[in-house]
Specification:
CATH class of the largest domain: Alpha Beta
Largest sheet: 9 strands, mixed
Mean pLDDT: 93
Number of domains: 3
Low-confidence stretches: none
Distance between the termini: 65 Å
Helix content: 25-40%
CATH topology of the largest domain: Spore Coat Polysaccharide Biosynthesis Protein SpsA, Chain A
Structural class: alpha+beta
Length: 463
């Protein structure tokens, strides 16, 4: 069953003329298409759908787009709520389990695994759940996967919950499987929520369980902002399928990348997607990637370039930082990275064709970096005049060294040991004309890694 009776009021002007399930994800795919495809992939061909707001438009579209599906349209004369809509369906369908999906989500949850898990658990209902940071509108479960209750808008329990369990707060993904027996626990009223029916079943001692959906992509498309993100993610997943010949199952935003870099993963492989706000930025990335790789400096290979995104080979997750924390980094590794610095430092400084910002690292660049460090690592202890004095000292030292190409942010999170064992530079868009000594200082005086002073001295001597 697909729940599709809502107004979609959070999408504002978009749903004034079109129902939310028919809003486009791209030029040919609508939101409801992304919900139907995984259902059909399970072999299910009989689909119930409740309708209210602009229901005829949804019905006409589905009959035209999916003529081979055994459709059952249930038009609600008044909104019945999620629980009332499900009850209405269960009254007319055959006595068998029901897979229920919201119509305003984008997901890659493995429905085959959900069905198998439900069958193993002997549950009256199995809910696909995700981790949640807040306590409001959460599902309360224990470590054994048993659902005990729910919280309201302010994080309070809807009904008393047994506090002897170590309860976890989780988010409902809008996908569940329910058994026909759940109909017995419907409230004695016309309109009600799905949660009310589940609470009645829990109070009666019925087994309501969870399916952990954290390893799958999921997004609620209910607001303009999330719809925009969903469209971007849909495009990325589509490109991933073309490049890797498999479906994406997870998209993860990479920390410290300004929200513009994502890892897109399938079951066996992954790629990196970098989003840009201008064509000039994309052209510069292509230019510096070509320059470095031509000179044997390892950087991720570009797989595809679109108007807004560069898709590249995933160098992996073994950053210098993570390996250092696992005590798997030696002095020889740092020397190998310094060798890379020297290698790109000897490349003739290009005249950039497409650089989107300031290409030269100057005195103001040092001031900007000190201000950033002061805010984020030093609790604003430095006064403006102290920063200016320190910047003068540092820049005078740098100016004693020759100009060269510099990475500009050569710290341990931006250096990755690729699967083949080669140290690879990422986040390379900041390359510019500057001072190699600054990169080496960034490497050895890292905010995240505290190298022993004796090793720093040795590595400086090596440089």
């Amino acid at each position: 069953m697909i729940l599709a009776a809502g107004y979609g009021s959070r999408l504002q002007s978009l749903t004034k003329t079109i129902p939310k399930p028919l809003v486009y994800l791209d030029n040919s795919i609508r939101i409801i298409d992304s919900v139907i495809r995984p259902i059909l992939d399970t072999g299910i061909n009989s689909i119930y759908i409740n309708l209210y707001h602009r229901g005829k438009a949804i019905r006409d579209y589905l009959l035209m787009r999916y003529p081979c599906v055994d459709w059952h349209f249930l038009l609600e004369e008044e909104l019945l709520g999620t629980g009332g809509g499900i009850l209405n369906t269960m009254k007319v369908m055959e006595n068998e389990p029901l897979l229920v999906c919201n119509s305003d989500i984008l997901h890659r949850i493995d429905l085959h695994s959900l069905i198998a898990r439900h069958e193993e658990q002997n549950a009256i209902a199995t809910m696909a759940l995700l981790s949640k940071t807040g306590k409001e509108r959460a599902v309360l479960s224990d470590n054994n996967g048993v659902v005990h209750g729910f919280t309201g808008r302010n994080g309070e329990s809807v009904r008393p919950v047994d506090e002897s369990y170590q309860l976890l707060y989780r988010e409902f993904a809008g996908i569940s499987i329910i058994e026909p027996e759940l109909i017995k626990y419907a409230p004695k009223k016309v309109a009600f929520g799905f949660v009310e029916m589940l609470l009645n079943a829990i109070d009666a001692g019925q087994n309501v369980r969870l399916f952990d959906a954290n390893s799958y992509y999921w997004l609620d498309l209910g607001t303009p902002e999330r719809l925009a993100k969903g469209r971007q993610d849909w495009q990325a997943m589509s490109e991933f399928a073309k490049l890797r010949n498999e479906s994406a199952v997870l998209i993860k935003q990479l920390a410290g990348a300004g929200g513009n870099v994502r890892r897109i993963s399938g079951k066996s492989r992954s790629i990196i997607a970098r989003n840009y706000s201008s064509l000039e930025e994309i052209r510069w990335h292509e230019e510096i990637t070509s320059l470095l790789s031509t000179n044997d400096v390892a950087v991720p290979e570009t797989l595809l370039t679109t108007e807004t995104t560069i898709y590249e080979v995933d160098a992996g997750q073994d950053t210098l930082l993570s390996l250092y924390e696992q005590e798997e980094v030696t002095l020889a590794d740092y020397k190998a990275i310094i060798d890379i610095c020297v290698k790109y430092g000897q490349i003739p400084i290009p005249e950039p064709v497409n650089h989107p910002g300031k290409f030269e690292f100057d005195h103001q660049s040092v001031v900007d970096d000190l201000n950033y460090f002061n805010r984020h690592y030093y609790n604003n202890k430095l006064l403006p005049e102290e920063i200016e004095k320190l910047a003068n000292t540092l820049f005078d030292k740098l100016a004693e060294t020759p100009l060269s190409l510099m990475h500009r942010d050569l710290q341990s999170a931006n250096i990755i040991k690729a699967p083949g064992g080669e140290w690879t530079l990422v986040d390379i868009d900041g390359f510019r004309k500057g001072f190699l000594l600054y990169d080496v200082a960034s490497l050895l005086l890292d905010s995240y890694v505290c190298l022993p002073e004796s090793e720093i001295e040795d590595l400086l001597d090596y440089f």
